[in-house]
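Ticket #4471: structure export looks truncated?
Reporter: QA, pipeline team
Priority: medium

Steps to reproduce: submit the single chain below to the structure queue and open the exported record.
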Amino acid sequence: MKLLQLVRRAKERDDKAMMEIIQMFEPKIRKSLSGINYDMREDYRQEVYIRIIRAVRKYNLQKTPDLVFCK
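Actual output as written to the record:
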């Protein structure tokens, strides 16, 4: 499923959609945290998850640009 569709569902408190969004970003999160001290990694991971959830819930779907190209 596409990110925008997942965001739309997650904003309606669909936990499964929110987990799919987090899983989409998990490889990037893992890579970014690889340089962090091992003892602190889980704390940072949880903070990233919290920030993703907040960002999704605050995202304004009405201001999403229309990417349809006109001829």
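Status: closed, not a bug. The export was complete when the record was re-opened. Leaving a note from the reviewer for reference: The chain has a mean pLDDT of 89.
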